[in-house]
Amino acid sequence: MIPNNSEVRFEVITNCNYNCTICCRDKLTRKLESMDLGTFKFLLDKITGETDQYTVCTFSGFGEPLLDKTLTEKIEYAARRGMKVLILTNASLLTIERFRVFDELAVLSIRVSIYGDSLEVYNRMHGIRDPGTFLRIKETLTKICEMKRTTQLLLTYNVEQGVNEEDSKRWIEYWKDRADLVEVWRPHNWVDGKKYRKVQEELMLSCGRPFKGPLQVQVDGTVNMCCFDFDGKLTLGDFKTQSLKEIFNSPLCKRIVACHETGNYAGSGLICERCDQRNADKSNVMMYNSKFDIEERVKKVSTTYQDIAR
Questions:
Q1: Contact at 8 Å (CB) between 236 and 223?
Q2: Backbone phi, psi, residue 49, to 5°
Q3: Residue burial 35-65, b: 16+ Cβ < 10 Å; e: rest
Q4: I want to staple 203 with a disulfide (CB 3.0 to 4.6 A). Which of 44, 98, 174, 278 is the partner?
């Protein structure tokens, strides 16, 4: 059963130029690499040849997409295939000129992670030391907000207790009437990579991803069940050599689906068993949203805003 979703997410690179405190790159064992243009074209053609359900192509994953030297060509190719394109980035390599290229290619939205409103806090949260990066990014994003454009600018802020809480108030005030969407979250756990959220006693049967989640194509062409599974423990198959039908009928996929249907994970060995995404009470997950009702927003994916809750 292919999950009922219109989005395919491509992880085109696993390298990143940041070391954010809320990220668990220090636990990543997967190879640091990028997906070449030929492989991307082959995989996208394979997807569209097998099904017409995917209409959105998102460039995200566990690396920084703007580090991919062939990202523009990949966007052009996806657009020619009739895909709406989304990008998730830290914006460290985003310039006005590059944004204009994306806008001309009709990129639907660019979501930027920016976790501070001062140099000291920003550098600490994103794990960098460059004294000029924060002000340059803020200036670039501000100019983009003032431009006539079709590409939407979406900004995300994650609050780490004792580090950037105070900055969040100024950050909201500055961006809420500038950017197309502003969201402030409390960090998640990356399943077992971090310990920000307490895994509750009352858990949902399922987070919904095996039934409604996007298609996750990793940098090496494998397909993963979940974007929170940063190290590929729920890798379902290799799309370079298998069809989507084969991948979503694999023994691992069937085991995952069975657990998510019954809520019985005991002895399964799945990382889903104690994942915070199954928490029943999501009232403390999001702190602010400039457009959406928070109670409804937390039931949706952070890209296309399709419902994920089952």
A1: yes
A2: -75, -25
A3: bebebbeebbebbbeeeebbebbbbbbbbbb
A4: 278
Which residue spans within 23-65 are E strands per DSSP?
56-60
What sign results for the dihedral spanned by CA atoms 200, 204, 210, 216? negative
Q: Are 63 and 12 in contact (CB under 8 A)?
A: yes
Would you say residue 182 has pLDDT above 90?
Answer: yes
Report residue 87: phi and psi, to 5°.
-130, 135
Q: How far is CA 302 from the centre of its chain?
A: 7
Q: Residue 1 has what pLDDT?
A: 80
Residue the block writes with tokens 């097998």: 50
Side by side, the strands of the sheet bearing 215-217 are 235-238, 222-224, 215-217, 7-11, 56-60, 84-89, 109-113, 152-158, 181-185, 286-289
Q: Reduced to 3 states, what is the DSSP secondary structure of residue 281?
A: coil
Structure letter (DSSP) for residue 26: G
Q: Could you write out the three-class secondary structure of 188-215?
A: CCCCCCCCCCCCCCCECCCCCHHHHCCE
Put simply, whether the predicted model's pTM sits higher than 0.85 gets the answer yes
Q: Which residues contact 246 (CB under 8 A, 6 or more apart)?
A: 237
CA 145/CA 143 separation, integer angstroms: 5
Q: Is pLDDT above 90 for 309? A: no
